[in-house]
Amino acid sequence: MPVQERKDLLTYKGAGVDISAGNEAVRRIKRLVAGTRRPEQIGDIGGFAGLMGLPAGVGDPVLVACTDGVGTKLLVAIALDRHDTVGVDLVAMNVNDLLVTGASTLFVLDYIACDRVVPERIEALVSGIVDGCKQARCALLGGETAELPGLYARDHYDLAAFAVGVVERSKMLGPTRVKSGDVVLGLRSSGLHSNGYSLARKALLDPAHAGLAFADRLPGDPAGRSVGEALLAPTRIYEPAFAALRGLEHAPLHGAAHITGGGLLENPARALADDLALELDLSPLELPPVIAAIAAQGVGVRELLRTFNCGVGMLLYVDPAHVDVVRAALAAVGEEPYALGRVVARAAADAPQVRLAGASWMGGAVEVE
Amino acid sequence: MPVQERKDLLTYKGAGVDISAGNEAVRRIKRLVAGTRRPEQIGDIGGFAGLMGLPAGVGDPVLVACTDGVGTKLLVAIALDRHDTVGVDLVAMNVNDLLVTGASTLFVLDYIACDRVVPERIEALVSGIVDGCKQARCALLGGETAELPGLYARDHYDLAAFAVGVVERSKMLGPTRVKSGDVVLGLRSSGLHSNGYSLARKALLDPAHAGLAFADRLPGDPAGRSVGEALLAPTRIYEPAFAALRGLEHAPLHGAAHITGGGLLENPARALADDLALELDLSPLELPPVIAAIAAQGVGVRELLRTFNCGVGMLLYVDPAHVDVVRAALAAVGEEPYALGRVVARAAADAPQVRLAGASWMGGAVEVE
């Protein structure tokens, strides 16, 4: 083989990496991202890193940081070739983790990895991330789009994000603040959010179970959505709800638990000290249609509670003296929280820390160690 | 199919997600991660998020944040079944971007996504990340291990990380500080670092080019390493070098450029104002053996300069009045920087901003628009 021909072959593009497609994707992204800029943000240093000052008025700031992805919900987006909503999920999964500490959001960074850069698809993904950042009132401060031929299958991609917020040290929520007697309110979820998709897809799509197609109507859905639409419904972002509570007199919000992977079995106690427990009555919960359709395929109640949010995306632990004020503040931002129970003293150091009861679909009480 | 049997089938594990393997991986990781703890760190709130105070003595803090992955260097680690070094690369790619702003590192978060959780492999990956965090003097504040069956091929995985640092606003490096006359020093790379692996693998492994196997000796390597060893050499982390310069009188470091994707063509000007340019003489550079072996397969000089670091992982733009002090401080941490040229006034607004000359392997001068 003549040297000239081999030189021609050995380019980065020839090896599967298309820099010009990458540049085109960056051009499309820039315009979108500008819409999330915050006043604390500082002009970039050649894009090596994102720069952000701290918001005014925080005397003793504590930084709060999370990372998460969207999981196999991406396989639904890829199968449906619909890429403009999973970015909302990505931001939500991170921001909802951050909010439970009492932090306000500051910024998000995203990581998109794919087998090849299709500028239109990257633009759609980032438009969802930007949508999420706007809902979460944070800047999209930076990101990476990685073209990794050989690591991802054709037209597959993965998303990860990272969120940073800040909280005044004296205002941190959680185990030091939650007390016996606190009332538990539950903020509604919009569906599966971003957990349990491997099981959800198996239950709904596998011919050995429901055997539905994405385009089929979801059984029992009053909105008449297709299975694909219901599965892709974006995760709710609870920043507006938390923002409504941050300014209230007497700081009535003591703690919160994001109902993420591990569901209602593993998350509620994460905001409690070891000597407290939860008595939750799930009877007010309406199982979202997509979760009800999955349950109908024969998922055991413990598996259901551990895998899915069962209709509640966030638990709030609220000072019983100020529940009415909290309810009014939440109503002002469109939230109609469920009343789900209360925080109690734990019976013993080895007693279960969560007791769930009440929902007809549960078939009885469930205790959680 | 009887209902009981279907219930038994429809579990999260049956759908490909093994929570107990995940828990075992978490147990192994915790011990490793504890070794990176920083004094500013605050005990977690149920692990929903990582919490970190700011270091003392920063009056007007600016947060600096980056995200990056390791690219297709992972395919080398996967092929060699050697997973304990790519974590160093992951931290390095983020931290080196962060350092050029003048920031000190604070924390890193990692995202590991795989087709199935093999606890030993996750432990190896995290041990590399922890090694990198120790080199970079930052905490591993959190992370996510995502099991995504169907999105990754068998035994494949991807890594992403996010790094956050902090810089006193008045001490930020970059375009506002770099001046005509500044001396350009280059810190040595350890090999490919984490860029250009798609081209590197094609040049070295493809039967149409060098056709080597990972176990073959790398041609021309004085250290006698195998191709696999040379390809996996971890990226250098320049935090010790920057730390040595941070405390110097007269703040002689004005700016820096991480030689990452885009190589010596696209990165050096990123730390310059538009009215400045660089005259770089690359003749002192020794091409690392792995890059020389790739070049020998017939990669054009522009492609080489744009894809690989060509032996220099970081450029420093230094006050000419204090170069000796800088050299002495770098020598104290084991750095022997190359003298590569200087910052000059740009001839015209449309004149090239970088002029590279001198290396015998370049075959002449290269101008960059």
UniProtKB/TrEMBL annotation, chains A, B:
The keyword Acyltransferase does not apply. This is Phosphoribosylformylglycinamidine cyclo-ligase. GO terms for biological process: 'de novo' IMP biosynthetic process; adenine biosynthetic process. It catalyses: 2-formamido-N(1)-(5-O-phospho-beta-D-ribosyl)acetamidine + ATP = 5-amino-1-(5-phospho-beta-D-ribosyl)imidazole + ADP + phosphate + H(+). It is an enzyme of class 6 (ligase). It comes from Nannocystis exedens. InterPro entries: PurM-like_C_dom (IPR010918), PurM-like_C_sf (IPR036676), PurM-like_N (IPR016188), PurM-like_N_sf (IPR036921), PurM_cligase (IPR004733). The lineage of its organism: Bacteria, Pseudomonadati, Myxococcota, Polyangia, Nannocystales. Its EC number is 6.3.3.1. The gene is purM. Belongs to the AIR synthase family. Pathway: Purine metabolism; IMP biosynthesis via de novo pathway; 5-amino-1-(5-phospho-D-ribosyl)imidazole from N(2)-formyl-N(1)-(5-phospho-D-ribosyl)glycinamide: step 2/2. GO terms for cellular component: cytosol.
